[in-house]
Amino acid sequence: SSNCVEWSLLPPVTKEMVARAEQLTGRFQGDPSFEYEYTEINAEDAERLFEDGKEPMIKEEARLVATIEQIDRAVGIIPRGAFVKTPLGSVHENRNFEGLSLTEAKKLSSYFHFTEPVNLKNKTLLEKADLDPSTDFLDSLEHDIPKGSWTVQLEKGGTVVVLRSLLWLGLTFYHVPMTKQYGYVYFGTGEKNLDLPFML
C-alpha cells in the first residue's frame, strides 16, 4: 500500500529476486516503484546477474518480497508440537496442541524453524534416537549459528514468552504458555545484522 487505505497482494517470490535483493544494502525508500542500481558488486555476482546482457534493475516491491522471504526462511519459527508430520510425510497443524509448559517455553530447544530442515539431516542416528519423528522433524533454534542469536524473555509477569532475533533486528516471536496463542511479527529496517558474530 502506498496510502494505507488501498492494499494489494505482493507478487510471488522467485530465486532470481532473492539473489538480486541479497546484493543490495541500505534501507528501503518507501516507494514500491523505486529502482535500485548495483554499485558495489563483486565479479562473480556480476557475471551471474548480468548473464542476459542487460543491466539488471530491481524495484523496491521485488526487494520487499525477497526480504520477506529471507526473513521467513531465516527466523520464521513455531513452538514444538504446533505442527505434526504424518507417517506418509505430510505436515498438518496439530489440533491437540495446547501450548508449551512455562518450563519448556523458556528453552530454545522448544522452538523450530518453520522451513525445510537443514541441520536435522546431518544428525547421527544416535542423536535422532531421542527425537519424536512426528514433532521433531524441523531444525531447533538451539543449534543456530552464531550461538546467542536469540534472546528469550518473560513478559507480563511471566505469562508471555518472547523471543527476539538478533540476526534480523525487529523480529519478535511470542507464545503464551499453556495456550494455543503464538506468532511473530517483524518491525525492522529490512537489513540483516551482519555484525552479529562480532557483537556476541
Overall strand count: 10
Return the average pLDDT rounded to an integer.
84
Computed over alpha carbons, the radius of gyration is 19 Å
Sketch the major β-sheet. 4 strands, antiparallel
**Number of helical runs?**
6
**How many discrete domains?**
2
- Strand fraction: 15-25%
Summarize the amount of helix as a percent range: 10-25%
- What's the overall geometry? globular
Which stretches of 5+ consecutive residues score pLDDT under 50?
none
- For the largest sheet, list the strands in their spatial order: 7-8-9-10
Structural class: alpha+beta
Distance between the amino and carboxyl termini: 37 Å
Order of helices and strands: HEHEHEEEHEHEEEEH
Subcellular location: Cell projection, Kinocilium; Cytoplasm, Cytoskeleton, Flagellum axoneme
Family: Belongs to the flagellar radial spoke RSP9 family.
InterPro entries: RSP9
GO cellular component, one term: axoneme
Commentary on this structure:
The chain is of the alpha+beta class and 200 residues long. It folds into two domains: 15-74, no CATH class; 77-198, no CATH class. The protein has helices at residues 15-22, 43-49, 60-75, 102-105, 125-128, 196-199, and strands at residues 35-36, 58-59, 77-79, 83-85, 91-93, 111-113, 150-155, 160-165, 171-175, 182-186. Strand 4 (83-85) and strand 5 (91-93) form a beta hairpin. Helix 1 crosses helix 3 (60-75). The longest helix has 16 residues, at 60-75.
